């Protein structure tokens, strides 16, 4: 195998299953169908995988075009080991509810921290809980 610079090295990965981690934190899994010099990707049979604790759910997304600047990580999935996961797959509805609860818990924790800092500092440049000035 010869070395190919940049995204040209991914030509051999066309038609293989990949996991893509995006800048916004989303995880996509699909078959890589196309890539260009800017690392823009086309994924086929794509699912968005949501992880919460030891559970995960897959939301079908179909064909997905990803702008290269949004890709944080791209990795080939070993199809033989794909099912060897300690995580439990749950329904879309259940994982979305778990995600909502997790996000609400994080927001409440951030609000408590903000409140503590605000009450400790008084009005000196801090913001009130809930983002109010």
UniProtKB/TrEMBL annotation:
Domain called Sm: residue spans: 5-80
Purpose of the protein: Plays a role in the degradation of histone mRNAs, the only eukaryotic mRNAs that are not polyadenylated. Probably also part of an LSm subunits-containing complex involved in the general process of mRNA degradation.
Keyword RNA-binding set for record: yes
Lineage: superkingdom: Eukaryota
PROSITE patterns attached to this UniProt entry: SM
Organism: Macaca fascicularis (Crab-eating macaque)
Broad class of the protein's primary localization: cytoplasm
Protein name: U6 snRNA-associated Sm-like protein LSm1
Alphabetically ordered keywords of this record: Cytoplasm, mRNA processing, mRNA splicing, Phosphoprotein, Ribonucleoprotein, RNA-binding
Pfam families linked: LSM (PF01423)
Subunit field text: Interacts with SLBP; interaction with SLBP occurs when histone mRNA is being rapidly degraded during the S phase. LSm subunits form a heteromer with a donut shape.
Record-level GO cellular component terms: Lsm1-7-Pat1 complex; P-body; ribonucleoprotein complex
Family to which the UniProt record says this protein belongs: Belongs to the snRNP Sm proteins family.
SMART domains: Sm
Subcellular localization(s) per the UniProt record: Cytoplasm; Cytoplasm, P-body
GO function term, MF aspect, one: mRNA binding
InterPro entries documented for this protein: Lsm1, LSM_dom_sf, PTHR15588, Sm, Sm_dom_euk/arc
A Gene Ontology BP annotation from the UniProt entry: RNA splicing
Cross-referenced SUPFAM superfamilies: Sm-like ribonucleoproteins
